[in-house]
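User: quick one - fold this with BIS(adenosine)-5'-pentaphosphate bound?
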Amino acid sequence: MGPPGAGKGTQAKALAKRLGLAHISTGDILRQNVAGDTELGRQAKDFMNKGLLVPDELVTRMVAGRIDEPDTKNGFILDGYPRNIAQAEALDAIFKQKGINIDYVINLDTSEAVIIQRLSGRLACEGCNANYHIKNMPPKKDMLCDNCGSQLYQRIDDREETIKKRLDVYRKESALLIQHYREKNKLQQVSADEEAGTVLNKIIDLVK
Ligand code: AP5
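Assistant: Sure. Structure tokens for the protein plus BIS(adenosine)-5'-pentaphosphate:
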């Protein structure tokens, strides 16, 4: 968990690779559906472009289906879900039914100045969803992905106005989750303002 730009995607991808786990990013799955103009993508697009949450039932159904795929059998990292108390309760119900336990909920604690700097310079790969940053993590070749060579682009929701909206939504909805998981004794706080490798090492120290 963490606010927009905290580094959830960056850290979850690196951690999944390191630990051999599946990485399930609701934001990435939704963007793939928007790009593919699927029914789900058409339903989600306007909410995403405005920086609002996509309705809970759509996202929860999508996550429940994704968890059933074979690559999750050794475990998985959820990135961007749950995002409010209703989604956390829906996830608890899914996990109870499947006999799955949450090991850790890692909250990436990030300052607002860092969030704005990161999001305004972010570049995403249209091929493999890798993340870059114009200054912090530039690609080797201008606007091309190091992993797959596809074109990099700036996300529509990384415009200044939409960043503010996403932060508002985070403060109102997602921040309550911190308390929810603290009460369940699952929460681990990681200060995420530092360089990506340092943050990853802190997370690995926690989970090893
Ligand atoms: P989503 O894609 O999940 O967006 P988000 O939560 O706003 O988070 P971001 O992807 O913006 O940031 P991040 O924390 O992953 O940071 P990143 O690693 O990219 O969701 C998008 C939308 O989809 C939502 O607004 C909503 O509409 C919908 N949605 C998704 N899930 C939903 C749900 N559960 N329910 C309802 N709707 C949902 O890093 C950011 C930048 O910083 C990058 O450029 C990166 O290179 C750089 N960077 C990262 N870490 C560091 C570091 N330590 N040092 C320097 N630079 C860094």
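One thing worth noting: The radius of gyration is 16 Å.
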